[in-house]
Amino acid sequence: MAAPNGLARIDTTHPEKKAAAAAAKHENGICHDDSSAPVRAQNIDELHSMQRKRSAPTTPIKDTGASPFAVAVSDEDRRKQQLQSISASLASLTRETGPKVVRGDPARKGEAAAKTSAPAAAPPPPQPHHHHHHHVAPTISVSDSSLKFTHVLYNLSPGELYEQAIKYEKGSFITATGALATLSGAKTGRSPRDKRIVKDEAAAQELWWGKGSPNIEMDEHTFLTNRERAVDYLNSLDKVYVNDQFLNWDPENRIKVRIISARAYHSLFMHNMCIRPTEEELESFGTPDFTIYNAGKFPCNRYTHYMTSSTSVDINLGRREMVILGTQYAGEMKKGLFGVMHYLMPKRRILSLHSGCNMGRDGDVALFFGLSGTGKTTLSTDHNRLLIGDDEHCWSDNGVSNIEGGCYAKCIDLSREKEPDIWNAIKFGTVLENVVFDEHTREVDYTDKSVTENTRAAYPIEYIPNAKIPCVGPHPKNVILLACDAFGVLPPVSKLNLAQTMYHFISGYTALVAGTEDGIKEPQATFSACFGAAFIMLHPTKYAAMLAEKMQTYGATGWLVNTGWSGGRYGVGKRIKLPYTRKIIDAIHSGELLTANYQKTEVFGLEIPTAIEGVPSEILDPINTWTDKAAYKETLLKLAGLFGKNFEVFASYKIGEDSTLTEEILAAGPKV
Ligand SMILES: Nc1ncnc2c1ncn2[C@@H]1O[C@H](COP(=O)(O)OP(=O)(O)OP(=O)(O)O)[C@@H](O)[C@H]1O
Ligand SMILES: O=C([O-])CC(=O)C(=O)O
Ligand SMILES: [Ca+2]
Ligand SMILES: [Mn+2]
């Protein structure tokens, strides 16, 4: 119906005639797009309200006990209980009641919010007190904060969190593949030097303190000061995000966690990283076992005792709480909870592990230990195997279980070819931290380190196509210790006996390359006990003894894999090609390496295979790849010296009940 000048003609036909004409056309078997019925809304507001269907009301809580007096709780009562529980979490310790909390976005006035307003909550539940302070907190029953409502955005969906982030948080964008690009602010890695643990009587006895320990003490009063600062900050906001989720896929040892945060970015990160409850599980969630107050946008007060910077990450095991001030790096929450698991699980005789974990189709499980950036996520995400988890696991009498519900992959230099499963997981729902992208196309440039080298993607584990859900498996067959050796002298793979496995597990060697830990930019040899000294709570020998016992009981084999330099040290040689490392790992899984021929290296006394399918044999012994043999020997001895020096502090400890094993472990180190 084009006019002679080529422009569409304005149609002046009466709508009724038009409908009749359309019907006639339809009869001819031709359907035109002007034939659909018009929208039924009377105005734009009504149209908009039609777009969003109200979520179906959740079913009442079913009483699981067999009590004949059990009464079903109504949806309204359940919501009220939830809000009261959140108000109790947010309660100031110096006022009588928690804040008035209300569900919903303050920007959506007059909608759901007004209807669900909760009465001010009951005082917070009594907490175990280990100390008596001479400081008696004043009771302020009336304050401005008790006059205002705190809006609670409770367990929002990724779509809702995207909208919140994009609307309210600068630096939030949707990338070309649908991920949410975010900025974590000034901190782009964890701040281990700003971590504090409350040293109450129980903690003083149970935890590892002193030289080498990551646990820097704080007193209860200082913790409460920081907690109050965080709670007051959170309550001063228009709205807070609350996540109620789980940790640990082992149903008998599941922990309920609540995360209260100021940013949609943090809420989406934890939505991805923790285990997501079903509707039903959420209904009976009740009181959390552990609560995080993430006030990371707000600094700590440097005049507060124990504060050495404006960042403070404080864990109080007695109160089962963690407070974050002065850092918005989201990994702090995930690793804070990991520390808590390192305390709670060993109490139940369960070993917590900083490791990745996957399983072959025949049920053979492998653990991948290693410090940050050594390849836990990269190597446990293996297209030929089922992924149980990439970073945090438990090993109990029943087998292994993932602690988390998501993965946290490094993205620097990420490529579709080398890491296809991680590449494809970066889609809608995934949080992409600190990456750089094209302003217009929104294509991410994974090689760009302008913001940080520690760029990260956090995605739910089911974004990996061969994830094993539920994330549990049988006892491990192989225990792979990953080290990224920037000195280039450790062999690409060695088979370890039990004593050597323990020696290297306790040593926890790598050379940090990227800045996961704030402040570290240049490569540097690092020893971190149990491949995670920053997260362990007890003395390393406690975890080592448990690992030795489990490996012995279940007949697991230990391996040391160098995912670092070959052909010379950092600056001279190159990082071992990922496809070669994958071939090595394949040969461990398949059993090929168990029956290979071995030779023993000097100094470290490591058993190295002479050939591996798909790997050039000359790289298997590092000396072959160095042109300067004298420099090789010198570097080898230097590293051996560093190992020896690091191990000195462990020489006086006994590992397990078995003193023979302890002696064997001490003898399993390099000979200088
Ligand atoms: N030969 C190799 N083996 C393993 N990873 C390699 C190798 N060469 C390069 N890489 C790169 O090293 C990085 C390993 O990071 P990965 O995310 O697996 O660390 P991680 O051990 O999971 O650390 P974190 O505990 O911090 O999450 C990836 O960016 C990977 O592409
Ligand atoms: O915790 C982080 O920031 C990332 C990580 O997995 C680690 O450092 O081990
Ligand atoms: Ca990882
Ligand atoms: Mn990690």
UniProtKB/TrEMBL annotation:
CDD domains in the record: PEPCK_ATP
Pathway: Carbohydrate biosynthesis; gluconeogenesis
Assigned protein family: Belongs to the phosphoenolpyruvate carboxykinase (ATP) family.
Gene name of the record: LOC125552250
Record's compositionally biased regions (Basic and acidic residues): 11-35, 102-112
Name by which UniProt lists this protein: phosphoenolpyruvate carboxykinase (ATP)
Chief localisation class: cytoplasm
Catalytic reaction(s) noted: oxaloacetate + ATP = phosphoenolpyruvate + ADP + CO2
Enzyme class: lyase
Entry-linked InterPro entries: PEP_carboxykinase_ATP (IPR001272), PEP_carboxykinase_C (IPR013035), PEP_carboxykinase_N (IPR008210), PEPCK_ATP_CS (IPR015994)
GO terms for cellular component: cytosol
Organism: Triticum urartu (Red wild einkorn)
Cell location: Cytoplasm
A GO MF label: phosphoenolpyruvate carboxykinase (ATP) activity
